[in-house]
Amino acid sequence: MTGPEPSRAGQPAQPLDYWLSRELAAVAPPQAPTRLRQLADAQASRAAAWSSAIAGGPVLALCGALVTAVAGNSAPVLVLGMVGAALAVLGVVRWKRVRSALPDTDKLLIVRGPGSARGGALAVVVLGAVPGAAFIPAMLSATARETGTAGILLGAYLLFLALLVACLAVPAAVLGRGRRSFRRRVLADTGLRHAVEQDLASWRDPFGNAAYGPL
Fold it and tell me: Rounded to an integer, what distance in angstroms lies between the CA atom of residue 62 and that of residue 83?
C-alpha cells in the first residue's frame, strides 16, 4: 500500500479540499506563506480597492448635496451625483470580476492601510478625532450666534468621517475577511474552484518546497 504520490515540489499531492480545511488553517502559523494564502490575499487587496470605490460613490453624491445646499446651485449635486454613481457602478462591476477569477500574483498591489475591520475602525477614530477637536468648538460658537454655519460645519465633518470610512474602514474590513471569503467562494463557485484546482495541479514553489496550502 502506497501513500500519496509526491509532487515535483517534494510535497505529498493533496486534494484541494484538504488545503481548504479550516482545521488545517487553525493549526498552521497565520503568517506562514502558502500559495493559497497568496492567491486569497492578492484577490482581497484588489477587491478592497474596488470596495473603496463603491463606498466612495455615495460620499461624492453627499458632498455635492452639501455644496448645493451652501451655494444654492444645483450643479454640484448633479455633477458629483453622476460621478459618484458612475464610480459606484464601476466599483461593483470590477468587484464582481475580481472575486470571480484568480489574481495575477506577479503584479503586486501594495496595501499600506490597516488590514482588518478593527484596524480600520481605529484609524477612522484616530484620524477623525484630530479635526473633530477643531470642529466642535467652532460648531458650538456658531450655534451660540444662531447662524447656519453650525449646520455647514457639522455636514462637512460628517462627510470627512464618511470619506475616512470609505477609504480606510471598508477596504480594511474586506482585507481582514479576505481568506475566509476566498474559502467560501471557492467552495460555492464552481468556476473559481476549477481555476484553483488547475493552479494546484500546475503550481510549483519557485524558491523551495513550500506546500500549496493551508488557507
Answer: 11
